[in-house]
Amino acid sequence: MKLSHEIASVAVKAWLKVFTRWEVRGKENVPLNEPLIVVANHVHLLDPPLLILSLPRWISFMAKEELFHSWFLGPIVRWAQAFPVYNKGTVKYKREVLKRAKETLENGFVLGMFPEGTRSRGGQLLPGHPGSVIIALKSDVSILPVGIIGTEKLKGLGWLWQRPQITANIGQPFRLPSVDGKMSKAKMKLRTELIMREIAALLPPEYRGVYHEAVGSPIGIEAEK
What we know:
34% of the residues lie in helices and 16% in strands. The chain contains 7 helices and 7 strands, in the order αββαβαβαβαβαβα. The chain has a 7-stranded mixed sheet, with helices on both faces.
């Protein structure tokens, strides 16, 4: 972590404690000395810095390419060591993104991803995309699920004196089941479902969205063998 990261972390943590009731649960679940992919639900622009401040390790995020062109957010995402992802990139570009992600993990760092691929305007969990599955299997690393609760309340300016409850609920790290034979769309979908269920289990029922009924039910990966 850079000195500027440490200074910013102290300042923003103090700001959070003044204007919100910020709580982190499960910090003891975070592996401290191994490469790791952090996956979480995404509701607000403040979710990435909230995750960085909630974990005892700095997180490098994959961020939408548009953010790097913003006069305000561009310098921030670069300073935070994020790297861009194009939603409609070519196959060659997607390979470059995968290479960058693998290099981040091979250097022992933490990679942050929001599997929904976008912010949920309603606060409920959206269907997941397979990017985190591909990177986790290619890199052979653990996944750490986090449920972010309460950031949807940060609208307008009224919340500054209401001190809303904001919670980062950190789950247990896990590894995806290995794939026997060729990776099919069905196998990819099951593993994406597994990741999303792990996130959903860390959220209150009203946040689980399309995964409300899925938490705790069999997923069917065992049937592959």
